[in-house]
Write a structure and sequence with these properties.
The chain is α/β, with parallel strands linked by helices. The protein contains 16 helices and 17 strands. The chain is globular. The site of flavin-adenine dinucleotide has 33 residues, from helix 5, strand 5, strand 7 and strand 13.
């Protein structure tokens, strides 16, 4: 999946993440001298995720459980600091909650991702120790990112830390916590961001070409933010004017490059997080509006953080009814419905499949209209055949 959890899991430090143009970041094992302890596989959320790993999660909204996982409270709002709100992707919620955990909760830092300093279309894992560093790294980056490859920084930190990532990343951090004592002790808060799939690096490069941007001269790329939902903006090194297009237009292009693995992921809303943040797409979108975030409280720890951040004036939030989540992210529910059938199609070809426990995949599949059931299975079979996934070893990337 590209979360990077296998990197710190390997006791021999033989795994690194490699960007495979059409897919995303994928692990590479230097097999020479590999002791075959299987820690990388055992800690991999791509192999499977069992919701039972988070027994402390309960649901106060049973009607949302099958489609969205446990939710104690649903809120909508934004960071009280107008700069964080403006810089953030949605309402700057992931950033401001992490800042609250560090400034008021005494957490040592936050592990997350930011733009690579050298190559603007790549992401690097960062450990932010201050609010200024957090703010520098706001904004969703619609390109491969593997925050779990930096879990060692949480393991060696002075106390609890925040972890920010997509559903796959949060699952990677939780699996690490279930296998090693230090992540278990030190992941003090897991903040998830909604994700409908991560476009490959090729997506960004092709978009630059489409916009007529000279790749060599690119200084920075913002995928969105600075307004809601904001603009995809490319800044240039030599003072040439920035190029920008509305976020919706950029996403329409980038989303076509989501790899097959993302179509097998049921966890678009980071169900293993303490708090998940996403967009309230039910609202009418005006590119320059100030941002808003949907906030799903998933654990008691998450509830304490959100309440504390409200009382301390870090966030402005209002309670929302469950229907707001469905109205905002209908596509995620439809996608979740397809997964049971996709996995079945893979099994028919004898292809290894991810094992998801507790995500109610069959119940979601049953609700899917017949036409969608057929379309998703036929699409999966087509991919298997055209890409040769049925051949043993074909899934390993070069
Ligand atoms: C690949 C991708 C797909 C998305 N799909 C959806 C969607 O379907 N529906 C929806 O509502 N929202 C989606 N989002 C957007 C995101 O979930 C929301 O914008 C969320 O509300 C976060 O906004 P914020 O203002 O709270 O975050 P901010 O305060 O701006 O902070 C964003 C945080 O996310 C981290 N981050 C940025 N890019 C990545 C990445 N690629 N991987 C891991 N961490 C990252 C940053 O390090 C930062 O800490 C997607 C984002 C990404 C990166």
């Amino acid at each position: 999946m590209g979360c990077g959890a296998c990197v710190p899991a390997c006791p021999e430090k033989r795994i690194r993440m490699v960007d495979v143009g059409d897919d995303g970041l994928r692990p590479r094992l230097d097999a020479a001298g590999c002791g075959a302890c299987d820690e990388c596989v055992k800690g991999c959320p791509g192999v499977g995720v069992d919701r039972g790993m988070m027994p402390e999660q309960e649901s106060a909204t049973p009607e949302l459980m099958e489609g969205w996982g446990p939710i104690l409270e649903l809120w909508e709002g934004f960071a009280a600091d107008p700069d964080v709100r403006f810089q953030g992707s949605s309402g700057g919620m992931a950033t401001v909650l992490a800042a609250y955990c560090m400034e008021k909760g005494g957490m040592a830092g936050a592990l997350h991702v930011g733009a690579d300093a050298e190559v603007a279309w790549r992401n690097t894992t960062r450990f932010s120790r201050s609010t200024a560093e957090l703010i520098e790294r706001t904004g969703s980056r619609y390109a491969p990112a593997s925050p779990c490859d930096g879990l060692a920084q949480i393991e060696s930190a002075d106390g609890e830390c925040v972890f920010i990532g997509k559903g796959c990343d949060v699952a990677g951090a939780r699996k690490a916590a279930s296998r090693r004592p230090e992540p278990a002790r030190k992941v003090g808060a897991a903040i998830g961001i909604f994700c409908a799939g991560t476009p490959s690096t090729k997506a960004t490069l092709d978009l630059l070409t489409r916009l007529g941007v000279d790749r060599e001269g690119v200084d920075g790329i913002r995928y969105r933010g600075k307004g809601w939902p904001g603009y995809f903006t490319v800044t240039m090194r030599d003072g040439r004017p920035p190029k920008s297009i509305p976020y919706m237009e950029a996403w329409g292009f980038l989303q076509q490059y989501r790899p097959f693995r993302c179509y097998l992921c049921p966890d678009a809303t980071a169900e293993l997080a303490d708090i998940s943040c996403g967009d309230p797409w039910y609202r009418e979108k005006k590119e320059d509006e100030q941002g808003f975030s949907l906030v799903l409280v998933r654990t008691e720890r998450g509830r304490k953080i959100v309440r504390g951040a409200m009382e301390a004036g870090y966030v402005v939030l209002e309670r929302r009814e469950p229907g707001v989540l469905v109205a905002s992210q209908r596509g995620m529910l439809d996608k979740r419905g397809t997964i049971w059938g996709r996995v079945l199609a893979m099994k028919m070809f004898g292809i290894p499949t991810p094992r998801y426990e507790g995500f109610h995949l069959y119940e979601n599949w049953k609700r899917l209209p017949a036409g969608e059931k057929v379309r998703s299975m036929v699409g999966t079979v087509r991919r298997i055949v055209t890409r040769g996934y049925y051949k043993p070893g074909s899934a390993s990337v070069e």
